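input
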Amino acid sequence: MKKIGVIQFPGSNCERETKLAIERSGMQAISFLWNYKTVSFDIFDGFVIVGGFSYEDRCRSGLIASKDPLLSKLIIEIEKGKPVLGICNGAQILIESGIVPGIKIQDSYKLSVALTLNEKINKKGKILGIGFYNTWCYIDIKNQKNIAENAFFQKKFSKPIRIPFANAEGRFILKKSTFNLLKSSGVMVWKYVNSIGNIKRYYPINPNQSMENIAAISNFSGNVLAMMPHPERTTDGDIIFASIRTYLEKKKIFLYKTFKEKKKIKQLKNYTLPESRYQFLIKMIITDNESISIEQTLKNLGIYCTIQKYQHLEIFSKKIDYKKMYELLYNNHAFYNPKKEYLITKIKLLKKSIKILVRKNTVFNQYKLNILHKKYSLNEIFDIKYGIFWNIIPKNYQEIDYIKKYLLHNSILYNPIAYKAYFYEE
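output
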């Protein structure tokens, strides 16, 4: 009987459903945790990285788990041809590690796709919601003729699969050039469709405004699949797990494929506050666990620094001055909870630190603005830009340039496909 390793990280919560789905498909499911040092990957024929909220989705979903040493071991097995399925958070981990789709710069996998905040937008362009969403959806493979020869999902079927969808950051974003590369390279692409298989761009058929209706993509070799919906939560999804068994029983000669790009040095523009705009920081009164998690992750990677995180607000209004704006925000609590957060009006930080401002997308900003106008009647505010302000203080100031380059090259604090970032200069 084929043995499938069920990989769990802190915060995983779908292991039971996943094990049952594997067993229904005639394979043996063996659970193991990320920190099991004695587990030999040689005993497994394939792997599933289960869904959930690894490390509470701190910074962004899948980031911290993607930096775990376990991923290096998994890559060795992947390049041997073993099948790997990442479901929901498992998909986010595969995307954040660069294993999917598998573009390399030199010998390292490149982050080339983003899974970011969901957007519910109807055909008329109305924003119905953002963030976590739970529903049922239909998915279908829309490029079956071009799928890589060794793809673990080869079974043809006559109708779309109906499975659950439950995530907050499941919207696929990628550059058009990257999507064209995937399409021409035999990469498996699942898409959100309606019940008869037709693609409709907007909600509810596309439940989260995912680019090109993408629900799942594979690596170039086809033996790794990152899927956001949950096939393990319904017997209708068993076809996905059965395909892994079929793949393993064929025993084909495997040739691992990747795509290589030239190394490019990332550059960030400096942030300057435009005229007629006000900025505020929001700081946690209680311990910010997200900052600590990123700090510890960097420490494990040999980067020693202190991480401070703030929310950043940039607001535009012609009607009110800075003092009144502060009073408005302070009294309405539209952006912060005074029981655990406080407003900072002047940004005064250490000179010898790295300051990076990460911007949320325009739909997020517009959604927040709509809430202000509707719920709080703050019609004096014409525009807001929301972001995360990171202050990185190196333990050794002589390493500040090295740390800056490391953070940018490894996309630690932001995903460049989904968000814009700037260096903040006082």
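quick obs: The domain at 3-261 is CATH 3.40.50.880 (Rossmann fold).
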